[in-house]
Structure formats: structure tokens, C-alpha cells
Amino acid sequence: MASEKRNSLAFDIDVNDQQRENEGKTRWSSCATEEDRNKPTYCVTDVPPWYLCIFLAIQHYLTSFGGMISIPLVLSEGLCLQHDSLTQSRLINTIFFSCGLITLLQVTFGVRLPILQGGTFALVTPAMAMLSMPEWKCPAWTQNASLVNTSSPVFIEVWQTRMRTLQGSIMVASLLQILVGFSGLIGLLMRFIGPLTIAPTVSLIGLSLYDSAGAKVGSHWGISAMTTALIILFSQYLRLIPVPVPTYSKAKKLHTSKFYIFQTMPILLGIMVSWLVCYLLTIYDVLPSDPAQYGHVARTDVKGDVVNEASWFTFPYPGQWGMPAVSLAGVFGMMAGIICSMAESVGDYHSCARLSGAPPPPKHAINRGIGVEGLGCLLAGAFGTGNGTTSFSENVAALGITKVGSRTVIFLCGVFMILVGMVGKIGAVFTTIPTPVVGGMFLIMFGVISAAGISNLQTTDMNSSRNIFIFGFSMFSALVIPNWLMKNPDFLDTGVREVDQVLHILLTTHMFVGGFLGFFLDNTIPGTKRERGLLPRDEEHLEDSSCSLETEEVYDLPFGITSCLSSQSWVRYIPFCPWKGYRSEYRSEENNMPQSQESNQLPNGIGVIKESAF
User: Which of 321, 304, 127 has the alpha carbon at shortest distance from 212?
Assistant: First the structure.
């Protein structure tokens, strides 16, 4: 009877309401207690019923939907692909496929937490900075749809040359993340990267994309405003309103359960409604059919017959766009983005562990997670996504909504993403979203990214004039310097072309300028750890932990690898491998650590939310 009750109640997404109904009864979750209503229904190692696994896996996919498709749509401008919807669809398929594959690697061999891997906007800004350089700017004829022949060898070479250079730069830069992760250097790095470095870096990722968002929004202000209003309505005003859905269980027979659809997928719902409105306005010829008239791009038939042209089955593979090339300037730009991504991911690991009922991630798990993310960037670059991968904070936030922290669900989500990436028609459908609808989505997403960066300052003392100066100066300088250099590209002239390219990319990347200034000033201007927001976070995690798991076996390697290696004394010197003496030593260090060693702890509150919280 207890297992039947567990199955029947599992569909209720609002677990707070669920726990109120069951208060005073025996808790069927292995991790739950009556004293704490915030504890997860399913912890990391639990396996929910198969139907709940499928449902929640699809939900995680839909949660990541907005961020996933935005990246190829933004990159298509720099790659000269605005008028090649078929190639855009292949890029969307490729990013879904590669992110699904890397999610499986992360859940199985990486940090082993229920954390989804997705594309990262931290690499979009340096990529767009690289593609805006004079030698990589798109030819004028590629901006005119009537002059573009997507099957022409000349056009194919134009965009594939840019993509191959982007691929190679990402692959080489990812070696830094692999080295930092598997060598254990991430702990040393995190001693110097605090909230005053992360906040301007993440905020400027969103702010730097204002031009791309503005161009799409301006294509039809009415449709864009409607899309934005719908997403705001669903995500903010209706998010706590449940929709009754019929469910069946042996205990309750046919009954209704609460499904918080507006909280789960507001972006997708907003896009679908606006898309439908555009379709109706198209079939009744309300929108102009003349390409020269304002509002034409809001029509749903602008992209032609791309859905019919796309194949049903596609299989992304490494090198599908040709042999990757390397740009020294591009590598340095991508490294800046990868450093930002690493710092945020460490914060995501702690947040995910707390929400999923796991103990604080030990050093070997963090090292392994960062290393696998580096391998993910390497694979994503090889597959030709034009991007890398990182931990998706949207899905970490979803754990707090569903109260289901099972890594089985995320593993299944990775499988689902791989399958979606192999269906060519799905990627083609996404490319037919009208431009102003995409613009309305960008207004929300990029705005939330900017605000999420600022939210990292909540652990710092913002009454301190020191912190106000560092953050304000870093932000404003990061807006002024890149803007001036974009208008005066010939100013940087050292006489060495390669050096000029490196400086141009770094100094026109808002994220790098703001992050570097924040890093330098935060580590050179005197300030206390509390003032800087660098207090230990492990103790707070232990107090707020959502589960009572006493050991860190959840982070052990699978398939008995840990038990096989535990008898080997040399394993203790491998930074990413757990060993039998680690746990007792770890607890001893936790209990006996003096106050003077607080700096060895990870900064508090870094990267809790990176991109979007929908």
C-alpha cells in the first residue's frame, strides 16, 4: 500500500502541497522526514516509477528548450546563416545530440549528480566577438535572401570556414578545462574567483547580446511584445496555478492530480501561442507578403519548405563540417568563457547536491565534474555545435520545483535529447519560429541572465563602498571599452597581426573585460572574507542539506570501479578518483579545520543561477 501511495502521489508537481496532505503519515521517501518539508521525494540514488521517470525527463528537456535553441539562432548571424534555415536546423539537431551525449557522461562518470549539460552563453559572446572581426565579417551578399543560394559551393565555404575555425578554437580552449579539472587545480582557482568576479562576468553575457535581441524584436514590435507578455504571464503570474490532469493508480483509481504547467514550461507555452497567432495572421494575409514591407518576417511561411526538405533521420558526427581549424585569437577568447563556466559550474554542483539530497560534493567529484565538462566542450566542438557545454542552472532550479533529485531521470533526459537530435524534422520545425517571436524570447532570457549574474552579489556586503566601486567600475568599463574598440578597430596596431587579433577579441568581449577588472580589483583591494562573500559554504550545505545520507558513496565511480581501485595506494594521488581512506580523512579535516584555513573553502553563493530560472 505504501508503494502504491508513492506511485499515485508522484505526479503532483507541487510537493509542498503534497506534503501538507500527508503530514503526520509515514514518509515513503527514503530521505524524507516529518520535520523538513523541503526534503526531496526521491534522492540521487532513488529510481522513481518508470512513467514518472519518462514524464520528468521530458519536463527537464522542455526546461532547457529555450536556452538550447537560442544559441544556434544567435550564432547563425555571425556564421552568415540567416537565410539558410536547413543548416540552422542541423545545428539545432547537433547541439541537442551532443548535449544529450555529454549529459550521459556527466551523470555516469562525472560529478554523478542529476545535473543536465547544455550549451553555454559564456562561449557565445567570445564567438560573436571573433566573428565580428574584419576578416570574418559576412560578405554583403549573404545578408540578402534573394542573392543566397544555400547549395552553392561558394556559400557553403563561406559559413563552413567560419564554423571550422570556431570548432578548432573551442576544442583547443577546452584542453584548459580538462587540465584544470582532472589535475585538481579547480580548488586553487576558486580561492581567487569570488562573487565580485562572477557577477559582472555573467551579467555582461546577457547585456552584450542586446543588439542581437533588438534586431529581432524590431522586426515586428507587436508580435515580440505579445511573446514577452505571454512568457511573463505564464512564468510570474500563473506559475502557482495548477492544472488538473487525470491520473490512475490502484489505490485511488481514476483521479486528478495537480500539474503546474505554467511553472514548468512558460517559455515553450509563450512561443507556441505566439507562433499560432502568427500562423493565423499568415493564412488570413494580415501580415504583409512583400519582403520589403515591415512585419513580413513575422509570417510563418518565410522559411519556405524547410520542414519538407529536412530529412527524418540525421546523425551528427565529429567533423561533419570539415577539418577544424585553429585561431590563436579565438582560443584566448574561448578560454575566457571557459574559466567563467568552470566557476559557475562549481556553484551549480553544490546547489544541485543540496536540492537532490546528497552530501556536499567532495573534491574528487568536483574535479571529475569539471574534467568531464571539459571533455564535453571538446566533443561539442568536434561535433560542430559552434559552442561548448556547461551545467544547466535552469534544470538545477527544476529540482527544487519537482523535489525529484534522481539521477536516473537526468540520464533518461540525456537519452531523450540524443533521440531528438537524430530526428531532422524536429530541428527544422524550430527554425520556422518567426523572428519576432524569437526576439520576444530573447528579451526575457537575456534579461534573466543579466539579473542572475547580479544575484551572485547577495553573499557580499553591498553596503561596502569597496564592493560598490569594484562592481560599478567593472560593469561600466566593460560596456565602454568594447563599444569604443568596435567603432575604432584600427586603434590596436602592435605590428604583429596575431597579437592584434588576440587583443581585439579579448577587449571587445564585454564578459572578459568586466570579469578581468572584477578579478584584479577584488584580489588587490583589501577586504574581509565576509565583505567579499568568500565565507565557507560546506558548513551551510550540511545544515541545509535536503537528505540525511551519511556517506559520499553517491559520488563513487560506477560499475565497481571504486571498489577495484580502493586497494591501490597510488589512487590517493589521483585528484579525480575516490579512495577508501578519503572519507575518514575528509571528515577529520571538516571537523578540525581552523579558522585560518577558511580560504581553502569554495566561495559561497557562486553561480547558483547562470542563465535562466524558468
Answer: 127
